[in-house]
Amino acid sequence: MDMKLKVKVRPSVFKWMRETSGYTAKEIASMLNVDTAYIKSIEDSREEYVEIPLKHLRLLARKYKRQLACFFLPRVPEGESLEDINRKYTIPIKVGQHYSHKVLLADRLCRYYRCLIKDYGYNETRPEPPRYTLQHEPEVVADKELHVLLGDYGMVRCSIEQYCINVLEGNIQLVLADERPYIIMVTATSSISKLEQLVEGYAHILLRHSSYCFFIDEYEAWCKDFMHYVMNKKKRLDKYVKRYGLAYLKALMNTDLRDDEIAIDVIDVKVDDVKTLRIALRT
Fold first, then answer.
1. What is the DSSP track for 107-154?
2. pLDDT tens, position by position, 121-140
């Protein structure tokens, strides 16, 4: 029935749907088997509405992974334009270039989950993570945050999510570091690789820096230094975690407790052992 049926769509909404899905006009023209000039004529039209075959909109909705009804919005939603996305991620995008559709889909996924949480009346009570800047040395920050990052991937994820941070797995690396931070990691990787992604994503959030695919810039360099320092230190401490347990090792980091106070709580641990372990944590 929709082979000949045409419906009215606002040109600005049609263009917004394409741009915020990460496709070029040429790519869309190829999908629809039309000339690029046809797509441009729709997007550049000064008419209030343009008529577009419904079959084209159905196909594009599937490609964009959006509801068909989005094409019939009266205007571009506030805060959802491509310019808003550019301001969110501090990544240089040249004129004529676009974020990939995978990046934009991951960004929408994060915000979709936020809407679900809000709609179900979930009250966020988890604390915000600490905040640092590029002026802080990554090694110094890593030592301060090491208590969050000890253990295997599952332990580290649980520790990070004690803050108001949500961790998801998908097909792209992305960090959304605003008032409700998200870390998206590549699923099909080894446990070590996932742990490295998680630690690096946490570093981005500490800097309040959103990024995708961990784009190489001064922030990424800082976060990589943070991650490598943490991973190297974790390797040295693994034998202590296996012997004494993660909770005990975290207790060692509590500078308010004396060596003899910690030794009392663990069987067969002497005060001298506590001193040795604390030295290992500081080096």
1. HHHHHHHHHHHHHTT----SPPPP---TTS-HHHHHHHHGGGS-SSHH
2. 566 688 999 999 999 999 99
